[in-house]
Design goal:
The chain is an alpha/beta fold. The chain has 9 helices and 20 strands. The protein has 2 domains: about 210 residues, 3-Layer(aba) Sandwich (Rossmann fold); about 110 residues, Rossmann fold.
Length: about 350
């Protein structure tokens, strides 16, 4: 049986070509992708292309565009066996994380990919990334998709989308998943680590939950920072603090007073680490006890991108029972390591 894959092109370097008159990059008509990449016709799956009307730089991608993609997948869910999203690299981890929360009870692959060089360049990474993403999106066993989650495929590695971060603007190997193993690697064969794959905990049918609140603020703590600025910011519903190491911050009464003031105003405070690897552990050092005192929420080993989009999705979402803190602490779709 020939599988069907929907290829969604949002924009990004992968869909660019050089304008030889000006020397700058411009988007090409992605409807002509089969001419640009004739190898796509050799893949044993049917590929339909749905390009955004106006290709977007990844820095222009946000909640509005995440909803467009989620709706598109929801509308076509029963018509296709898998989905590949072509996306600019700078914010791909945000989009992958957001979609992982919005697309509930997935039983089909949703794979994001892109490239560091345009598809027409001689040394481009675009062709391998796109072709292998299509292979992974059409990979079935006993009539069931092997991949049933939102992932990123880049430079021979298949990674869980809500565990990734972009760590290089220079190298083809641009993404890391520091706190979770790769789901697969491509070489001579396409390898899948079945034990690491996510499976929905519920037998409920696939649904799309478009709820996203933008009343979330992210702030990186740095030595010598004046926390008094927090009291001058208009009230926010969720403040995500990126702190030192396993969860430490300046151990002063002023720090406690400012953070307690925010909590008294009703602001939820989520704590994530500035370290790429590892996570938050309240109580490990005395300078983390302040967060326990004020009732802050541990982000554990989540990436900043995942914590931000998870907070946006959960905040005042009527589709969840319980309060924000209870729901944020749950492992919803493999975004956090369960203790």
């Amino acid at each position: 049986m020939k599988r069907k894959v929907l290829l969604i092109y949002t924009g990004g370097t992968i869909g660019m070509e050089k304008d030889y008159e000006t020397g700058s990059l411009r988007a090409f008509d992605f409807g002509s992708i089969f001419q640009k990449l004739p190898e796509m016709k050799l893949i044993e799956c049917e590929v339909d292309v749905h390009p955004f009307k106006k290709p977007l730089d990844s820095s222009d991608m946000g909640p509005k565009e995440w909803k467009i993609i989620a709706k598109l997948i929801g509308k076509n869910y029963d018509l296709y066996d898998g989905f590949v999203i072509l996306h600019g690299t700078d914010t791909m981890s945000y989009t992958a994380s957001a979609l992982s929360f919005m697309l509930k009870n997935l039983s089909k692959p949703v794979i994001l990919t892109g490239s560091q060089l345009p598809i027409g360049d001689l040394r481009t990474d675009a062709k391998e990334n796109l072709l292998t993403a299509l292979y992974y999106a059409s990979l079935y066993e006993n009539d069931k998709a092997l991949i049933q989650e939102v992932t990123i495929y880049f430079e021979y590695k298949l990674l869980r989308g809500n565990r990734t971060l972009k760590y290089s603007a220079e190298y083809f190997d641009a993404y890391q998943s520091p706190n979770y193993p790769a789901l697969g690697q491509s070489g001579v064969h396409l390898n899948i680590e079945k034990d690491f794959l996510w499976r929905a905990k519920s037998d409920a049918p696939f649904t799309v939950d478009l709820h996203l609140s933008q009343d979330v603020l992210f702030w990186r703590i740095f030595p010598g920072m004046h926390l008094e600025h927090f009291s001058e910011i208009p009230q926010m519903k969720v403040l995500i603090l990126q702190v030192f190491g396993s969860g430490t911050i300046f151990n002063t009464k002023k720090t406690l007073d400012i953070l307690q003031l925010l909590r008294d105003r009703g602001t939820e405070i989520v704590v994530v680490s500035q370290c790429v690897s590892g996570g938050i552990s309240f109580g490990k050092y005395s300078n983390s006890n302040i967060f326990t005192k004020i009732g802050a929420i541990s982000g554990n080993d989540m990436t900043a991108e995942s914590a931000i989009t998870k907070a946006m999705h959960l905040l005042e979402n009527p589709n969840y029972k319980g309060n924000f803190a209870e729901n944020f602490a749950k492992n919803l779709c493999g975004e956090v390591t369960e203790s």
